[in-house]
Hints:
seven-stranded mixed sheet, single chain, Quinone Oxidoreductase, Chain A, domain 1, Rossmann fold
Amino acid sequence: MRAWQVTRLGEPTDVLEEVDVELPELTGSQLRVRTLAAAANFPDVLMCRGLYQVKPDLPFTPGVEGCFEIVEVGPHVTDWEVGDRVIGGPVLPHGAFAEYAVLDSAMTFAAPQALTNEEASGLFIGYQTGWFGLHRRAQLKEGETLLIHAAAGGVGSAAIQLGKAAGARVIGVVGGAAKAEYARALGADIVVDRHTEDFVDVVKEATGGRGADVIYDPVGGETYQRSTKCIAFEGRILVIGFAGGDIQQAALNHALVKNYSIVGLHWGLYNRFDPAAVQACHDELTRLAYEGVVKPLIGEARGLDEIPAGLQALANGDTVGRVVFSPAASGEVVEQPTPEG
């Protein structure tokens, strides 16, 4: 099968190599799946660089989420059948940036019928992160003000839709006019172009000086530091990640004086400690997708041969919306594996 492998660490366009490899082996509770669409995520970039908390042995195939068709089930699998359309996070080192991948049956979910393959491929990580962050960690309430950084990115765009679904007033911060239009299309009430505006001033003006009740921050660094200047009384700053490259140092005396909370989210831990909640979240996201409230907006649909370039564009901050890769986007036809595997 065709696959993109990281053979050494560095930038995606430098280290991803297209190879022809054997189909991955299955163990008892695993599924062999055909990739219908794979969504690019910042963790894929970090894994290429060797900077993610998960560090697969070289060589490995990245691609942490996608939409798939089941082509073979392991001997201990009873809840899935060949032909089912599913979403999930592949078992590394056999990621989604290949014609075939491997899923753990316990961490596999039915692809919502309301979404296309490309849309469904972007529902898993970003929307689960947004839902757990806003509801479980930040306890977002109807009528509150939600400030979202990198609002045109993968996790930020999901947070806009989920924030609106929760009845919040959403302020999105983006970089550039194109991303601003995208955030508005997602439903943000107020959009701040950080290239021309100061989000601190905008938030204070929009809230009468009170500040944002919840700040959704996947950027970190200076963005976090400035966020502390516009957080409301009893507000919650939700630490999602550090896409800006710098891990901030929190001034806890400031949190004490202004009476706000700094809340971290590592969504992957729910898969280990509360998998039932992950399934319940997927059920809720499926319902919202059916109602048209949740729908990943695809900024770019690329072919499998464009994975290095597309992932590098994400790394450089040059993308708007979700970037997905699929055989359909390049007109390729992926052959089914032979019965002998």
